[in-house]
Amino acid sequence: MPILSFSSQDIDIITGKKTMTIRKLWKTPLKKGDRLYCYWNLVSKEKKKIFEAIVEDVETIKYKDLKDNDELARAEGYKNSQEMVKEFKKKYAGKIKDNDDFQIIHFKKLDVDDWKGDKIDEKAMITQRADILFDTGKYDKSTLCYNAALKIDPNDVYLLNKQGDNLSRLGEFGGAIECYDKALAIDEDNEYIINNKAIALLNAGDVFAALDASDAAYEANPNNPIVLYWRGFILEVLNAFDEALDVYDKLIKIDGENPEVWNARGNLLTDMGKLEEAIESFNKAVELSLGDSEKDADALNRMGNAYIDLGQFDKALDCYNAAIDIEKNNIDFLLNKGVVLMELQRFEEAVTSFDKVLLKNPENEDAFFLKEECLENF
Fold it and tell me: Phi/psi of residue 35, each to 5°?
């Protein structure tokens, strides 16, 4: 019973795009007609059977003829032969000689009904792999898996929605909207999918269509915190500030322990020129962050910006210093600190802050010119 193990590099195996693999010759060589039992990460906790297959053709090649063959390397999923050789050396512990034989194995995946071994739910297996790739930010690979799962069941609402989310993260908003529309044709009142469509339309630059979708999501459930959050943001983009503030105030009554809600409200109040109220919102966001350093730092930075607009530079500096204590190398925070130090006429300290920015990003023009201005005031 020949067994093949595939890894994350072999994502095209799951999707059916790839139907060949290259392996060092076994003691019992594979031959045409052999049945293959194929697994994902055979020797790890992620071990999972992915399919059975029949060998359709086998070619034998010497390693010396394989190791510089870019065409075969790309067919095996590598960028070039150098990358393939590097991986082969790891896989075979460096024990490869020029005269060693390798097999190029061409196979055909079998339908689950034709398997002889244990059968699996192929759609569930592919979906699980897609979700793992999505959650780890490997969107170019997860979209291939979602497509493969949709070939098995093109009317699965979960898959259509997830593929829409995936395409949105790849910047393919038109494709994302198509997926959401297909899902909504099956589940028309799903507020989450309607809201996801609104977000995709917003990112695609069609703000009024985004508001129409948000209206539909709101009608489906006017108390859904996610729907309300994005509705407030869309209204803010449309400069409908008073309406947006009403939405955020309603959201606070429903989800008032969420620091992101208070941050969003603070941003809006800043844009409305209500700076003291904005600072109160940012303070609440910091209070609720409960050790979430990224949210703490962001709220502190925005609070500092509001204090600058109020002309309270010492308080602004305190905010930026607190944000930098959390994220020491954040360029935006360091740049803002330098600006407020300039306002306080502490030019030497401002130069130090701008130098830290330029150390991280030598091409930052703001830091360069502001530093030059500081040097003129020494």
Answer: -95, 130
Sorting pLDDT into bands at 50, 70 and 90, what band is 291? low
DSSP 61: E
* 104 in the same domain as 74: yes
Q: Do both 125 and 114 map to the same domain?
A: no
**Token digits of residue 376:** 């003129």
The amino acid present at 302, given as its one-letter code, is R
Over the stretch 126-182, which tens digit does the pLDDT of each residue have?
898 899 899 999 999 899 999 999 999 999 999 999 999 999 999 999 999 999 999
Strand order in the sheet with 3-6: 3-6, 35-40, 48-62, 101-109, 20-24
In the chain the first and final C-alpha atoms are separated, in Å, by 79
Q: What is the pTM of this model?
A: 0.75
Type of residue found at 338: G
194-219 pLDDT, tens per residue? 999 999 999 999 999 999 999 999 99
Residue 123 to residue 370: CA distance in whole angstroms: 57
With respect to residue 114, please indicate whether it lies within any of the assigned structural domains.
yes
Q: Are 4 and 21 in contact (CB under 8 A)?
A: yes
Q: 27-41 as b/e, with b when 16 or more CB fall inside 10 Å?
A: eeebeeebbbbbbbe
Do residues 125 and 175 both lie within one domain?
yes
Whether 131 is covered by a domain: the verdict is: yes
Domain membership of residue 364 as a residue range: 329-378
Q: Which helix (H) or strand (E) holds 53?
A: strand 48-62
Q: Is the pLDDT of residue 49 over 60?
A: yes
